[in-house]
Amino acid sequence: MQLLIPVAAGLEGVVKKQLLSLGYGKAPAENGRIELTGDWADVARLNVFLRSGERVLIKLKEFPAETFDELYDNFYSVPWEEWLALDSKILMDGKSVSSRLAAVKAAGGVAKKAIVRRLADRKRSGRKTLSETGARSVVGFSIYKDRVTVTLDTSGDGLHKRGYRSLAYTAPLKETLAAAIVDLSFYRPETDSEKPFADVFCGSGTLPIEAAMKALRIAPGAERDFDFRHWECAPDGIFERAREEAKDKELRGRRVCIRGADISSEAISIAKFHARRAGVGHAVDFSVADMRQFQSSVPCGVMICNPPYGERLSDVEEVKTLCRDFGKMFRTLPDWSAYILTSFPEFERYFGKRSDRKKKLFNANLACGLYTYFGRRPEEREEDFS
């Protein structure tokens, strides 16, 4: 079967490298998706192990369509009886770009009608509607320049929902993005597990937690549920085997040096709770502290931060002062590398130093810059994720 992995803009290279580390070959990326060939075992493994992909989709069909009749006929031709049960709860998820079929809601209604008719015909139910009381099945359709791609979402909830972040805090960083930034950095615990890692604006703890999960080889999807687990078409035991593989790879006893700090005691309390739920409570040293007091006697550390801006700090003058003080503190760490994600457009000016590299990323729908400052590089050659 053909599998599609939607990827946030700018992270295609990161996810490709994650796929290589899982034993998959080079896969092409196009229109924000990576496509590869796999089977049901791969569906389970990708859902369990991928840190920065958004979902794992099964590609069912691709075809041109400019009218609702063409859309209906092509949807009807998909062997839905092989994928869906008669009582499946079918949800439609569509989008249309530069296409004649621009009315997404109407297109979804036509597509679902074709699915229901096909199931009724092939399963000889005689029904015009389904009970939809069974397992959830999200059918996706993407129409781009009058070409339709039909998918079945095996993940259900997005892969950023690891299951550990249950308490709300202001403007959280998406887990898949946090994991990608860790991968983009010089933090490489597989070669130097005790290399210092710090986030001095850790909020509810997403960046240090994702860094710790990577260091301890804890698979992000091992403790959550996925839609495919409830489908009749999915073979028994595939999730359990993937989860067992993940558990065998864990290094929970590995010594690491990961620190998270925030000026808010509420944030640190939430961060500690989330870290315990993620299984890394013992691996991250969280503290209530002002970033201006951060010090380290250990050289060549990695600092990854998402400083407060926008929702978390709306006063522009406060932001400017914070950036100035942050820059002053960081200049006391000449051997450290820093990776700073912010949507503040004048960050470099007030931080007091032009970045060595800037990469455009998106946190949800918010455009951000990832500003990179290189300290002493690790001995191995820097990977190019551009």
Which short descriptors sum up this protein?
about 375 residues; VC0802-like; Rossmann fold; 2 domains; seven-stranded mixed β-sheet; elongated; disordered C terminus
Task: Please characterize this protein's 3D structure.
The chain is an alpha/beta fold and 386 residues long. It folds into 2 domains: 2-153, VC0802-like (2-Layer Sandwich); 175-220 and 255-373, Rossmann fold (3-Layer(aba) Sandwich), CATH 3.40.50.150. Helix content is 30%, strand content 22%. It has helices at 12-21, 40-49, 68-77, 104-122, 175-184, 206-215, 238-249, 265-278, 316-330, 347-351, and strands spanning 2-6, 29-30, 33-37, 57-64, 89-97, 136-144, 147-153, 196-199, 257-262, 284-288, 302-305, 337-342, 357-363, 366-373. The strands form 2 sheets. Strands 2-3-1-4-7-6-5 form a 7-stranded mixed β-sheet. It has a 7-stranded mixed β-sheet with strand order 10-9-8-11-12-14-13, with helices on one face. A hairpin with a 2-residue loop joins strand 13 and strand 14 (366-373). The radius of gyration is 23 Å and the shape is elongated.
In short:
By secondary structure, the protein is of the alpha/beta class.
Provide the CATH top-level class of the largest domain.
Alpha Beta
Total E-strand runs: 14
Which homologous superfamily in CATH is the superfamily of the largest domain? Vaccinia Virus protein VP39
Give the amount of beta strand, in percent.
Answer: 15-25%
What kind of sheet is the major sheet? 7 strands, mixed
Distance between the termini: 29 Å
Based on Cα principal axes, name the global outline: elongated
